[in-house]
Every structure is written in structure tokens, then in C-alpha cells.
Amino acid sequence: MSILIGILGLGLLVFVHEAGHFFTARAVGMSPRKFYIGFPPALFRVRRKGIEYGIGTIPLGGYVKIPGMHRPAPSDLDARFGRALEEDAQLLAPIEHVKRRLAEGDMEGARALLDELERALKRAELSDSTRKSTRKGLEDLRDGLGGDAYWRQRTWKKVAVIFAGPGTNLVFAIAIFFLLFLLVGGKATRTIEQVQEETPAQGAGLRPGDRIVAVNGMPVAPDRISRSITSSEGRPLTITVSRGGDRVDLGPVQPKVIDGAYRLGFRLKAEPLGAAASFSQSLRLTGTVTKEIGASLGRLVRGSRKEVSSPVGIVEGSSQAIEQGYETYMWVLGLLSLSLALLNLLPLLPLDGGHIAFSIIEGVRGRAVGREVYERVSAVGIALVLLLFFIGLSNDVGRIGGN
After folding, report:
1. For 15-63, what is each residue's pLDDT tens digit?
2. Among 8, 48, 161, 313, which is disulfide-ready with 309 (CB 3.0 to 4.6 Å)?
3. Domains annotated on the chain, with CATH
4. Can you give the three-state secondary structure of the chain, one letter per residue?
């Protein structure tokens, strides 16, 4: 069940990301054609008001199809209708007419010729698979030449639509941190809120509601309890608690390494913060994590790859957080949302940061960047993303396998 919840949590973050793109595109006058969670083939799809909504079989992401991401070029017709031309040579004239207009930069003229091309495709003797691909090619060409095509929009609109995905994940993370600080994230108290199963704390008899008053006979303030346990380096401890008005000595109990530090396996209650303090703390945490992610990317460039994780590791880590309690899981979900936002802002195609960079370049140049440039840069970006994925997958397999 915890693994399923971990998968659903990752799906929620993807949904939030894609919803940012989708609703912003609609707000600035672009009309998305598809909104999918996961990648094709589709498990479920439905069409509403010209938009296809669906859930894909491959649960590794999602996408929003915005029309005309690239300026149509003559080579597009070779790619989309080349096989149809091989099957019926009579298509040569209408295809060449559109290609000539595109080569001349006459987008409106090319758009006006699409009806002629469509009629020719309907008359042509084509195989079923070729006819299906030509319908899709014609649809994509119409989208690219339409007035709401992405490449036609002003720079600020393009940047706003692309930034909205990671921006929504960023806001979502801050909102989760804010609520956690508001409800449970203030200063620690002495009172135990939760005891994890199969931990030294449970074995020693610690219970929710116990108030810790001393460690090894030494009185401890709430903010010193965790440090006293961590600094033991695994040596046995005696924990004195107040329970029902009585003082009870528990132990000796030996801490063990949990999440990279010596712990007993309990969580203390915290005093909730006010709204202003919670918001301030959420922004501070966001800044701290952002710096750490930047530092980890720097370490990755220098050859340290141990911190990289794939969706397999993310789900596995999320399921472990769920087992420690839903509060812990919500912290992890917020951190994952922030990580998704920051990694998507890297200036690499096909990531959002790459599209933002190229939109700004096109705005400065005053004209669209050629499709071949996009494809070359995207090939490099995809290779780097796949490299990160396989490094993360290798790390996750090693961790899960106990290596």
C-alpha cells in the first residue's frame, strides 16, 4: 500500500506541474490539444471541448500538447508526407506548393493551401497506416500554422507558459512547508508524539505521551534531546520519562543508525507556529534546499554520483517515509516537488529551462530558431537526462539490493 501511495504522490506532483502549463496556456490565449498524466499508449482518454484528456500507460511523467511549439519548415512535409508521396506520386504538386510557401516565409499562404492538400490526401491511394500518419501530420501542420501556435506568441507569453510548470511545483512545495510549519513544525517539546515500529524506542517501552526529562540521568532541554541521542554514537542510553505523574527509567537502550544518524525511533511533538512565522520558515527552508540541490549538482559534475535517484528510488523513499508517518511523507512530498521544479529549470532541452532559454533567444533575435538547431540541442539534452536517469537507477538498484 505504501508503494502505491508513493506512486500516486509522484503522479500528483506531475499533475500539478502539467496543470501549471495547461491553465496558463489557456489564460494567455493558446489552446492546448492534450493533457496527459503518464506517457502513451493511453489507458484512458476522453475528449472535452476539443481537448483530449488521458492517463498514459508509462507512469514516468506527463505532458500538455501545446500547438505549434516550432515554426513549420519545408522539411516537416518531407518527414510527415514522404511515405504518402512514395505510395501516390500525384501528391507531389500539393505538397510542393505548401513547401514553397513555407520556404518563402509565407505562413498565411501555406495555411491557405492546407485544404487543397487535405483534398489530395483523401483522393490518394494510401495504405491504412500511411493514411493514419498523414491525418496526424496534417493536424500538426494546421496547429503549427494556426493563430494560437506557440512559436507565434510574444516572448513573455511563451516564457510564462513554460515557467508555469516548475513554478506551480515551487508554489506547491512552499504551500506544503507552510502548512506543516503551521500545524506541527514549531519548537520541539519534551513530549513524544510517535514511536516507530521495530525501533529501539519501541523495544525500550517508550510510548506516545511520555515526557522525556533526562538522558543518562542528565536533565535535557527539548532542543538537546535529539543531539544527546545522536552524539552517543550507538552507546547504550537510559531514558527517564514522566508518565502519568511518575518518573520511569527506560533502558539501557542502544541507538541504531536510522536515516544516516544514531536514533531511537521516536518523534517529539512540536509547538505550532503562527501564520507569519510559518510562511517565513517555509521560504527559508525552500532557499536552504535550493542551495543544497545546486551544490549536489556541482558535486555531480565533479564526479560524485551517489546523490542521484531515479523514479524507482523516489517511490521507494516515499514508501519508507509513509511507514514513518504521513507527516514525514508530506515533508518528503514537499521536497520532491521543489526538486522537480528546480531540475526542470535547468537550461537543457527538452526540459522547461531549455524552452525558456530558447524563447528568450528568439525574442532577442526577433525570429524563430530553426528546427534543426532545436533537434541538435535536444539530442544533447536528452542524452544528459537519460544519463542522469541510468545513474539514478543504478544507485537505486544498489541501495535496494543492499550494496
Report:
1. 899 999 999 999 998 989 999 988 778 888 999 988 999 988 876 678 8
2. 313
3. 2-66+160-167 (no CATH), 74-145 (no CATH), 188-270 (2.30.42.10), 275-400 (no CATH)
4. CHHHHHHHHHHHHHHHHHHHHHHHHHHCCCCCCEEEEEEEEEEEEEEECCEEEEEEEEEEEEEEECCCCCCCCHHHHHHHHHHHHHHCHHHHHHHHHHHHHHHCCCHHHHHHCHHHHHHHHHHCCCCHHHHHHHHHHHHHHHHHHCCCCHHHCCHHHHHHHHHHHHHHHHHHHHHHHHHHHHHCCCCEEEEEEEECCCCHHHHHCCCCCCEEEEECCEECCHHHHHHHHHCCCCCCEEEEEEECCEEEEEEEECCEEECCEEECCEEEEECCCCHHHHHHHHHHHHHHHHHHHHHHHHHHHCCCCCCCCCHHHHHHHHHHHHHCCHHHHHHHHHHHHHHHHHHHCCCCCCCHHHHHHHHHHHHHHCCCCCHHHHHHHHHHHHHHHHHHHHHHHHHHHHHHCCC
